[in-house]
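Q: Okay, next protein. This is Trehalase family glycosidase from Streptomyces venetus. I've checked the sequence twice, so it should be correct. Can you predict the 3D structure?
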Amino acid sequence: MDRTARRAPRPTGGTIAYDPSRTALPLHLRAAAVLEAGWTGSSTVPSRSLYPHQWSWDSAFIAIGLRHLSPLRAQTELETLLAAQWADGRIPHIVFNPSVPLDAYFPSPDFWRSATAGRAAGAPRTVQTSGIVQPPVHALAAWLVHLADPGLSRARGFLTRAYPRLAAWHRYLLHRRDLGGGGLVSVVHPWEQGMDNSPCWDRPLSRVTPAPARSFRRADLDHGSPEGRPTDLDYGRYVRLAADYRDRGYADGPGDFMVEDPAFNALLITSEYALARIAHELGAAGSARRTRAERLTAALVERLWDPAAGMFLCRDVRAGELVPERGVAGLVPLLLPTLPRDLAATLVRTVCGPHFGLGGSTRLVPSYDLLGEAFDPHRYWRGPAWFNTSWLLERGLRLQGERGRADALRRGILHTAGASGFAEYVDPYTAQACGATGFGWTAALTLDLLHDRPAWDKNGVTATKGEDRL
């Protein structure tokens, strides 16, 4: 841990209130205050107002940043999430805090009914959760958290306890979610992929009959502008998909929405490499996981690469075709160490070209094609730039040897995070803050980038001190 990390305030259990107006404070202190304000004692909420529970991939990103403040709290963050794992291996996308009123967030626990509807799939009885999943960033997060303080991790048996749960999580995805039969994981709801209302979902979602508007109440509109949130039509389709999945007892199989997503699968591959490192740390062989990661990379290229688009596209499994929309998810495979070099070079040209404009018209990577018909710079995942995807692409550019571009993106992320009050997302052209401010993963990934940038090895998972500094 470097000097900046040692000077950062030690968490004290939620006593520091985040104030976005305190811009005179150093950036790392402001980011630490955001995470302190969101700490519940066992995990961190993404946003006290908009997202008052624990979210799966949010917690993974938050743990990556928390490790620079308190490795113990970062371990606890992941352990709390893993404790809510279902017996079939799935890690639910929400772990509900029972002290939060039911009407504070929809869909609430009484919608998901995990303890009853999920009984056959092994939902936990002691905690309420959702029944869908989110991208598998968790093994990568666990490995990076371990590296922050290996002595503490070993003394607490952190990896020893986490590894079987992470292995079961990957096993669930690889065995239960290969709905297309080509080796890749399918998502069965847009919320699972994390980029909720991306235009990439419009075509497969069009088959879904929306739930009647009177059958649910959107709590998100109490805290955000309707112009920046999914439409009522899209939300009705989300509710219908989730209710149908629940009513099937959360059993996996063919359905109206089945999509192979490049980002979800690229993050699974990255976490397979991390699991190989964890296995080695625990004295086991990791070669089978590295081989699996290479095989999954080949499947990703075979099934989702589109030469004409110059990037990876989503595959609509039910229709048996690629979805002709360029979303940021199709750039995330830059993270993969065995990605063919010509494809990596093409991805770099695409991210810096007119469709995403990085280094030209944009400082952060937009979530959707700047030239696409559905582009909207302010509406949730239909154009705004998000900090977690830009963090992933900064890492991917660096792994592919694009140090100059990675450095520029890193500077853009840090400047925009501070100037926007750690916004949930921003206008890709103007960097105007959108959504919630004081957002958990924005603050956490800011902290990660403020520390010495690691030199990632050929597998993209181990870290040593590098020379990059703010």
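A: Here is a summary of the prediction. The first helix runs from residue 3 to 7. Confidence is low (pLDDT under 50) at residues 1-18, 462-470.
Q: Noted. On to the next one.
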